[in-house]
Every structure is written in C-alpha cells, then in structure tokens.
TrEMBL record:
Gene3D superfamilies: 1.20.1270.180. Residues 152-180, 426-458 are annotated as: Disordered. Keywords: Signal. Residues 27-87 form the Lysozyme inhibitor LprI-like N-terminal domain. Residues 426-438 have a biased composition (Basic and acidic residues). It comes from Pseudomonas serboccidentalis. This is Lysozyme inhibitor LprI family protein. Pfam families: LprI. InterPro entries: LprI-like_N, Lysozyme_Inhibitor_LprI. It comes from the Bacteria. Residues 1-22 form the signal peptide.
Length: 458
C-alpha cells in the first residue's frame, strides 16, 4: 500500500530488517557465479541477509518445523541458482522466498489467543446480549463504553515544523505537562523521527500491561485519499520505550497496531479493560453488521478474538426530502412515496437471496440494444457502501434502484442515513436520489477466533 509516496511494508518484515546485514553471506568465500552476483549487488545482498536471518530465526523458534524448512530451503537454493547472473531473476526469487518465510514467521511470532482471551470473548458477548434487552440499538456501544480504561492517561502532541506548509512534525523539546521526569528521560532516549515525519502525531502515556509503568500509544495522521491514521504502541522497559515491532529505514507505520480510514470505511477503537486485561477493541462497521477485533496492544496480532454483532433495520423513505442545498425541503407525491417505500422491501431480499443466476432487474424489451444496464445500477464509489440493487416500479414503468449507505454509520438522533438512487434502465440516465432513514435493532451476537482484517472482512 502507498501512503503519501511511501511504501508500507508488513509488520513481520520489519521484525528482521534491523541488524540483517550481520546475517548476510560471507562474500570472501563466494565461489559461484550466483554468489558473486549477489555480493556485487547491494540490493541482492540485503535480501540475502534478511532471508538468512529470518530462516535462522525460524529454525531456532520451531524445532518441529526444522525438517520441512531445511528441505524447502534446499529446493529454493536450486531454483535460485538457475538464475545464475540474472539480477532481476534473483531479486524475484528472493522476494518470493521472503514472503513465504514471513508468512510462516507470523504463525510463530504472533500472539495466540489463550484461555483468558476466550473467556473475555464470552464475557463480552454476554454483556452485549444483556445490554440489548434495554437498548437494542446501541448495545455494543454502551458495553464498550462501560469497559473503557478508567485512567485517561497523559496526551501531548508533536511540535509543528517550522515550515507552515510541511506535514512533518517533531517530538517536543521540552517536557509536556503530566509527564514525569523519569518518563521524560525514557522518552528522550527513544527514536520517534520516523513517526513524526509522516504527519501530525499524538502521544499518550498509559499503562497497557498492568506493570504500573505507563506505556506509550503513538497516533500518526498521514492523510491520503482515505484520511488514514496509524497507531503503534511502545512498551516501557527500564530507561526506554521499545516499539512493539521494530521500525527500519525511517519507516514506522508498516508495523502499526492498527489503522483507521476516515473516508471509505466506518471504523473506531475503544481502549478497554476486560477482566484485568487491556485490549484495543477495533470496530469495523458495515450495513447490518459490526465486527470487533480484540487486539493485544503490545503484541503482534494475527489470529484474534472477534465478536460480530448483527442488526435488522426498519427502513423508510421520508415524505419530506431535502433539496441539493441541504437546507430547503420538498414533499414527495403520495404515489411516488408509496412506490419508493415498496421498493425498499427488496433490500432484505437482495441480501439474503443467493446470486447463483444473474437475472435482469427490469424486463429487457426486444428493442433494447444495450442490455447490460438492466442487470445492475452500475459502478459504485469507494467512499460509500452499496447495499443492494432492486426494481423500483413507478406507475407501470420499471426503474433500476440502488441503496447506498456509509458502512453502517449510525447515530442516536438520525439512525441509519442512507440514499436510494433511481434511474431508467438506460445507463445514460443520470437518475434521482432520495433520502432513506432506518432504525436498527440487534438481531444476533456471535464470537470466533480469526485473522485481524482492518476493513472488517473476515
């Protein structure tokens, strides 16, 4: 992924890049054309060093996997040597092997949910179900809020750059209010340039592991098309704060605990304490579902506890609609109002029906020359979520309708805010947009252990 011209590498890759040079082959003993080519090319030598260290770490970590690792490594070396002096070929072979080894390392290095995590998951599920009896709309939000960390911690910001047009910031030169002398000394010996160089940065001191020493949360806003914010954590260890995953080459956000996207997603994080254990409860919303991932704040997370909350909606098209200026209003004609509300009944049907056979939404007349526009509304837009396409019958004419929303975004005042766009089957028709309102109620809660997905797909 690219953010503001920077490549974001994986967290697992970052674990081994530091000190990798020490693990490279001994070029004084290079005896083949392949080895000489690698030693003559810094990029290839660095890849060889990274792979060598990663391989040795895997061999040390898992005795059970050693035989298979040895066999696959020997097989890979034969494939690599076929490249001889072809630098591009060698580069590709190394990157393929590194990716595979990094995937294997994730399985060993990542925190594995234990009995405590599973009990926490069950407790959270029971709490949400209990809250839904009195508040079926906001049972999840109310439950997470009740579990929020009691101490707000100490938060301070990085200093802006002298150039008012620069996004770069700098770690403060003087001790912020609320930071002890001991903490300031440890902060001053920790390197934060990689974080602050990427955009506006906030620092929060709070105990994340219960050792009575405050750890550090670093939140960096990088912007971009998705208005991204990256969050990483540092554990207080003696006279220094150590990053959860090592950074390298001035790049830090590749090893972030999580990121949030403020355009094209509906995401939020609650720092909670459940049963004496702190988690970053990462919520990814969509129409009809919220998925919450319980992230261990100071570990690598791969398989994590997940709780899924599902909702049913009561949808309606308000008779009073807003004009494009957002201030003035108009009223729908009764017949049109009835037709639009009738069309909304198809939304639930469209979500539950299997899409094994592609059928037109509106009947295709024999005179139609372009039939594609009869099967769907068309391409969507990344910043909004397309829920369903369905027929809208106005009078005796069939129109193509689509309901969009903002990834399940929901408020106490307005409920679900969505839109229905309606057009003629002719794709050239610009169509018309109508407001849709919805009230939800919790319909189910389930738990699982699975991979952490920041977009909420599981």
């Amino acid at each position: 992924m690219y953010i503001k011209g920077r490549y974001i590498v994986s967290a697992c890759a970052l674990l081994f890049i530091q000190q990798a040079m020490a693990a490279g082959m001994d070029c004084a003993k290079a005896s083949s054309a392949v080895e000489n080519t690698i030693c003559a090319n810094k990029g290839l030598y660095d890849l060889d060093a990274q792979m060598g260290m990663l391989y040795r770490q895997l061999m040390t970590t898992s005795a059970q996997a050693q035989p298979d690792l040895k066999q696959t490594q020997r097989s890979w070396l034969k494939t690599r040597n076929e490249c001889v002096e072809d630098v591009a070929c060698l580069d590709l072979r190394y990157r393929e092997r590194l990716q595979l080894l990094q995937t294997q390392w994730t399985q060993f290095a990542a925190h594995q949910p234990d009995g405590v995590d599973k009990q926490v998951l069950d407790d959270l599920q029971n709490s949400i179900r209990a809250a839904s009896k009195t508040d079926p709309q906001f049972a999840l939000e109310r439950t997470l809020a009740s579990l929020s960390l009691k101490s707000p911690g100490t938060t301070f910001s990085a200093d802006p750059d002298a150039d008012q047009f620069s996004d770069k910031t700098h770690f403060p030169k003087t001790r912020p209010k609320g930071v002890s002398q001991d903490e300031w000394k440890a902060l001053s010996t920790t390197e934060f340039d990689a974080d602050t160089a990427l955009g506006r940065t906030m620092f929060t001191l709070i105990d994340l592991d219960g050792d009575r020493q405050r750890d550090l949360i670093v939140e960096t806003y990088t912007g971009g098309t998705g208005l991204y914010t990256f969050v990483e954590t540092f554990r207080r260890e003696g006279d220094k704060f150590n990053r959860r995953t090592p950074a390298s080459d001035g790049e830090s956000i590749g090893g972030s605990l999580y990121s949030t996207n403020d355009r094209g997603a509906n995401q939020s994080v609650n720092w909670v304490n459940i049963g004496g254990k702190v988690y970053a409860a990462y919520r990814a919303g969509a129409y009809g579902v919220d998925r919450v991932y319980l992230l261990n704040p100071l570990q690598i997370n791969h398989e994590v506890p997940i709780i899924e909350v599902r909702y049913d909606y009561r949808l309606s098209v308000p008779r009073t609609q807003h004009n494009e200026d957002g201030k003035t209003t108009f009223k729908l004609e009764p017949a049109l109002h009835q037709s639009l509300n009738q069309a909304l009944t198809h939304v639930t049907e469209s979500q539950t029906q299997a899409s094994e056979q592609r059928t037109p939404i509106c009947p295709i007349p024999p005179t139609a020359t372009d039939t594609e526009g009869y099967y769907s509304y068309g391409a969507g837009y990344y910043a909004i979520e397309s829920v369903a396409d369905f027929p809208v019958i106005i009078g005796k004419e069939c129109f193509i309708g689509r309901m969009n929303n903002w990834f399940g975004a929901y408020s106490e005042k307005d409920g679900l805010f969505a839109q229905m766009t309606v057009r003629k089957p002719d794709p050239e028709d610009g169509g018309r947009t109508y407001e849709v309102k919805g009230r939800r109620q919790l319909s189910g809660v389930s738990t699982s252990i699975g991979k952490f997905e920041e977009n909420g797909d599981n």
